[in-house]
Amino acid sequence: MPDERVIVPYSPGLATGTHVNPELTHPKLAPVVTVARTLSLPDGYRFAATLGQIAMGRYDPCARFVDGAFWWATTTPLGPGTLRLIRDGTALEATGYGPGAEWVLDQADAVAGLRDDLTGFTAVAARHPVVAQVAHAHRGVRLPATGRLFPRLLRNIFEQKVTGKEAFRAYAATVRHFGEPAPGPLPRLWTPPEPAVIAAAPYWKFHPFGVEQRRAETLRRAAAVADRLERCADAAEATRRLTAIPGIGAWTAAEVVRVVYGDPDAVSVGDYHIPNTVAWALAGEARGTDERMLALLEPFRGHRGRVCVLLEMAGIGAPRFGPRMPLRSFARY
Questions:
Q1: Structural domains in the chain, sorted by start
Q2: How far apart are the first and last CA of the chain?
Q3: In Å, what is the CA distance from 72 to each residue of 24, 45, 75, 162, 186?
Q4: pLDDT at 104 over 80
Q5: DSSP letters spanning 168-189
Q6: What angle do CA 158, 163, 167 make, to 5 degrees?
Q7: Is the Cα dihedral 252, 155, 311, 113 positive or negative?
Q8: 141 near 46, Cβ under 8 Å?
Q9: For the CA atoms of the chain, what is the radius of gyration?
Q10: Is the confidence at residue 214, as pLDDT, over 70?
């Protein structure tokens, strides 16, 4: 099926298949028209598993699945934009809303992982039986590429050295405090905050969200240079620029470029779980260091990050020993 693009009159019913209360949409952002695009899909494409890599759980304020459709709101060079993707047989229907509608439509195939190049991966995966097995079982999973760096960096800085629940609370509260309602008919979807707004906020503004000074200052430093970060040509340049910012290391950079650029080789060095997962899956060792993880992944160079993603999707995890990391609230300090 060819890639087709049309402009259609704005209609909440067209977007969701159900009536939407106009009062729940942002009056300044509600678009007059939407832009639609049809994308053909490869055989075996996994819609939810691919796009689920973008959202931070089921209740991400900027990205979520609703009634079988995936919604993603972001800032763009043209203004805020919302992308809706829904599968229709062997095709993917993409609809853009807001000032950034054309931009998100241009990026829709990348967001859906359709620019992900799997050439040669089957041969690479065959170098280890476990990797070959998970690669076959999840062969329809693609790596998305959103093309927007700062919104992803916002989330990943909040994920540094805390539990997932702590990170989500900080991320969601920051988006709702500093962001704006997203264009389009879906209520309670938010556009992430503009970098200039974050850079101008004092660190203590993030304290009620459970963010201590170290992460808040890292975020503010990154926001101050966000324009340069967004202009990075590829994952390698972005990694160099990101890791030059105090407070951002290899883990954060890898988490960012794997989703922003669809980098299949980005390995999250310094992760709490991934070294153990890789060591257990590939060598039967219950615990692994970053050095051991990288050694085990070396045969898959070029797709090391993809291998880590597939192992996680397969539910492979090392045995757990000892207590879990406790939840904390910096807002009370």
A1: 4-112 (3.30.310)
A2: 57
A3: 17, 19, 10, 25, 10
A4: yes
A5: HHHHHHHHHHHSEEPSSS-TT-
A6: 30
A7: negative
A8: yes
A9: 20
A10: yes
Q: Which amino acid is at 305?
A: G
Counting beta carbons within 10 angstroms of the beta carbon of residue 4, is it exposed (0 to 12), middle (13 to 18) or buried (19 or more)? exposed
Whether 293 and 279 have beta carbons less than 8 Å apart is answered as yes
DSSP-derived letter for residue 77 is T
Q: What is the pLDDT of residues 29-60, one digit of tens each?
A: 444 357 899 999 999 999 999 999 999 999 99
The whole-angstrom separation of Cα 128 and Cα 105 is: 38
Residue 332 DSSP one-character state: G
What are the start-end ranges of the H helices in the chain?
12-16, 47-51, 101-106, 108-111, 121-125, 129-137, 149-158, 164-178, 195-200, 213-224, 226-230, 235-243, 250-260, 274-283, 290-297, 304-313
Spatial distance between the Cα atoms of 34 and 56, rounded to a whole number of angstroms = 26
Q: What is the pTM of this model?
A: 0.88
